[in-house]
Records
---
Amino acid sequence: MAHEPGDDGFVTVYNRKTASREPPLDDDTGLQLQIFKIIVIGDSNVGKTCLTYRFCGGKFLKNPEATIGVDFRERSVVIDGETVKLQIWDTAGQERFRKSMVEHYYRNVHAVIFVYDVTKLSTLESMPEWIEECARQCVPPAVPRILVGNKCDLQARREVPTSLAQRMADSYNFPLFETSAKDPGEKEHVDAIFLTLAYRLKNHKPLRLKQPSEGSTVHLADEQERSPNHCTC
């Protein structure tokens, strides 16, 4: 069953017809848009839904409900003068909501974002299980994967040092971001997570990771230049 777009303009819940239809046309050029499917994975209550709302709608979702199955949101962005569409799949963290949908999460995926809560160590400790699930679904090694620590606005409650998360990211050769979906000042940083992936996917260029220091935020950059941040909703 599919939900119609709500007042916030988001389209939610997996729709078999929508997922298999022909790519839409760019209104300006008449050419088919490039569409990239990005899935967001992690334990319940780490802020996956809030991250996707912040990116797609530019706002913080104050009272999110647990995702059942999968929520589906879109945002078009301009990369190097060309519009591409990002399909963001916000997945359920609870196993009872996931079983029937897992194969749909990973089918034809272009990038994977693994999210943990910096105030809850167990959400980082469970990350290998999520990474293993991704591997079991035969996601190709070339599909970009990144690790994101959310809720950095709650520094007094932090349980996960940046250095610990960085070691895990390094062990899997993942870039690491730390951010806050709630803090309005972090909006551009949340955008950068998704836009960096969009730039990498569109241009098929490798990423490099700037080495972090303890307590710092990790940024991604293209090997030759920083990814552009020109975007339109």
---
Amino acid sequence: MVIPDATGNKRLDTLQNVIATGRAGLLFVIPGRTTTLRVNGRACVSTRPELLSQLTAVGKPPASALVLGIEEVYPHCPKSLLRSGAWKPEQWLSADAQPTSAEVTLAQLRMPELAIADIERTEAESLKYRYE
């Protein structure tokens, strides 16, 4: 299985984990369905042009791709999705009752010199160039 790195994603967390361990596990979730599909196996990050040229969903090849040598595929127990009410809007917290992504980031960073406006500006800038 080959998964291109989304153009503009600019996040290396997962790729660094794959490089460090040589393994990956994916959990496929379909909105409205409670059973998920788990896929595990050996993994590597590829920057081979001949592979990346085949992955041009947005008109140009990605900078890299995750290559997964599948060792296990199985449905995953739906209990947690059923218990959570993830697909039941009446059980969701209202948007006003949840912190914004900037508020969560600020709380996690614990940097008193930062303000919400700084983080919101950074978020807006990162989205502005997401698909270039």
